[in-house]
């Protein structure tokens, strides 16, 4: 074997070793969560804890419904995630199309100011948003979780990158045929940016589903909480029932896994293209 071939093989082995190590690190917490969901409480507090449960306790999953309004909170999360995602797809695509394809005075300056929102930490917006929701009488309601998430500077930026790369010939041909701006937007532009829309949808659903701080601020009633906030109530100051908590977290992650599996190809394609288009 030549030195060049030996070096190539060594590099390939090292690359695969790093990838396997990364996969173990990424999957390890999920596997530990899965095993903990079937253990008894004494097993989770033993030092060192056993790797496998001595007895697989399916009752931990049923116990989640006894200590939480799990079904209602799961429904709340589904409604909020669906509404926020649809809102962002609608508003972000309209804004992105305007910034990418329409000519108007001050467009670049307005877009730069729009992107400056990304530099503002999310925590700074909590107080004014809370005051607005309180003034509207929307505390402890689903609209309080939905309204602040309908707009996204990141989503607008992501979609603008795609709209900007579409050849102008499509629009010019449609204009010559008598199509209006909204007809061009809905019939021509949106189908062409479908991968980006899928990527934004998956990102928005994951972010909304896992959001914790804002739901804990505006919704304190258990029946109006999403599942991410509801699971935190299982953590007590004195002790925590980790098997029940892990069982609840495991069930709460199933909708996200299904959504990712359904949109996996579009999500990967959208992220890849967003990194190559300027």
Summarize the structure.
The chain has 278 residues and is an all-alpha fold.
Summarize this structure as a short list of keywords or feature phrases.
single chain; about 280 residues; mainly alpha; 15 helices; globular
Rounded to the nearest angstrom, the distance between the terminal CA atoms is 44 Å
Q: Can you tell me the overall shape?
A: globular
Arithmetic mean of pLDDT: 85
Number of helices: 15
Total number of beta strands: 0
Structural class: mainly alpha
Q: Which range does the strand content fall in? A: under 5%
- Give the low-confidence spans: none
Order of helices and strands: HHHHHHHHHHHHHHH
Radius of gyration: 24 Å
Helix coverage percent: over 70%
> How many strands, which pairing sense, and closed or not: the largest β-sheet?
none
Explain what you see.
- With 278 residues, the chain is mainly alpha-helical.
- It contains 15 helices and no strands.
- Helix 4 crosses helix 8.
- The longest helix has 34 residues, at 3-36.
- 25% of the residues are buried.
Q: Secondary structure elements and their pairing?
A:
Elements lengths: L2 H34 L4 H5 L13 H9 L2 H32 L5 H9 L10 H10 L6 H5 L6 H13 L2 H9 L4 H12 L1 H17 L2 H6 L8 H6 L9 H21 L1 H13 L2
Helix pairs in contact: 3-14, 4-8, 4-11, 11-15
């Amino acid at each position: 074997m030549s030195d060049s071939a030996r070096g190539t093989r060594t590099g390939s082995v090292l690359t695969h070793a790093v990838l396997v190590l990364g996969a173990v690190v990424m999957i390890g917490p999920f596997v530990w969560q899965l095993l903990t969901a079937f253990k008894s409480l004494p097993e989770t507090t033993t030092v060192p804890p056993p790797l496998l449960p001595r007895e697989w306790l399916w009752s931990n999953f049923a116990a989640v419904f006894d200590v939480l309004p799990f079904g209602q909170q799961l429904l709340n999360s589904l409604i909020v995630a669906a509404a926020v995602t649809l809102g962002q797809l609608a508003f972000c695509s309209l804004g992105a199309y305007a910034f990418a394809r329409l000519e108007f005075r001050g467009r670049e300056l307005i877009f730069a100011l729009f992107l400056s929102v990304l530099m503002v930490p999310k925590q700074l917006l909590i107080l004014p948003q809370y005051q607005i929701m309180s003034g509207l009488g929307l505390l402890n309601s689903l609209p309080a979780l939905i309204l602040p998430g309908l707009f996204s500077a990141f989503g607008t930026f992501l979609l603008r990158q795609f709209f900007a790369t579409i050849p102008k010939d499509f629009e010019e041909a449609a204009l010559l045929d008598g199509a209006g701006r909204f007809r061009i937007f809905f019939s021509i532009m949106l189908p062409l940016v479908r991968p980006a829309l899928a990527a934004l949808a998956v990102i928005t659903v994951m972010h909304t589903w896992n959001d914790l701080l804002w739901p804990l601020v505006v919704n304190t009633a258990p029946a109006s909480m999403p599942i991410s906030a509801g699971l935190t109530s299982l953590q007590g100051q004195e002790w925590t029932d980790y098997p029940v908590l892990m069982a609840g977290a495991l069930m709460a992650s199933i909708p996200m896994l299904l959504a990712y599996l359904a949109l996996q190809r579009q999500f990967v394609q959208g992220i890849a293209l967003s990194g190559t288009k300027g």
